[in-house]
Amino acid sequence: MNKIVLLIEDLPVEQEKAKQALAEHGFRAAVTSTLSDALRIWNSLEGKLFGIITDLHFPERTSDNPNASDPNKPCGFAIIAKATKKGTPVVVCSNVDHHFCEYAKIVIETLAEYHPMKRIPFVMDNKNWNRATEELIKLTVREE
User: Fold this and answer.
1) Where are the domains of the chain?
2) What is the pLDDT of residue 95?
3) What H or E segment, with its residue span, contains residue 22?
4) Sheet containing strand 49-54, strands side by side
5) Residue 1's pLDDT is what?
């Protein structure tokens, strides 16, 4: 049985790149692009997830919802906060050229202080999914 990684990314081309990187490391991706769907999938996979790789900026609600939100919201912070509370391994993979801001690093570093693993990797080099997957593996090896 493949290990499952919750992948949260709103761009289809990036989803495909991420799924390929995860597959190359022996993982199966549960892919979603919104916060509401991510939380629903996370709840349904409780106890079965190897970890999470999330973009930082993605929509809050599904696009078929008439009140769909701005795709540039930093909804990844909600995922990071929940992962911190639950002790779930989480890696942030975001494009610095598109969304970089100093506050993101500060918030993630601060949340990492409260995460049981004391580390939340933030891959900021143009959505390097292979590196994000390797960081997730490192987190779980440290834990074992």
Assistant:
1) 3-143
2) 79
3) helix 12-24
4) 27-32, 3-8, 49-54, 90-93, 122-123
5) 45
Q: Rg (Cα) of the chain, in Å, rounded?
A: 14
pLDDT band for position 106 (cuts 50, 70, 90):
confident
Dist. CA 104–CA 38, nearest whole Å = 20
- What is the token pair recorded at 54? 């999330």
How open is the CA angle 59-29-125, to the nearest 5 degrees? 65
Alpha-helical runs (H) found in 25-121: 35-44, 76-86, 96-99, 102-112
Quote the CATH superfamily of domain 3-143: Response regulator (3.40.50.2300)
What is the pTM assigned to this prediction?
Answer: 0.88
Amino acid at the residue 125: D
> Is 144's pLDDT higher than 50?
no
Angle between helices 12-24 and 129-143 (to 10 degrees): 50
Let me know the angle formed at the C-alpha of 122 by 83 and 68, rounded to the nearest 5 degrees.
Answer: 65
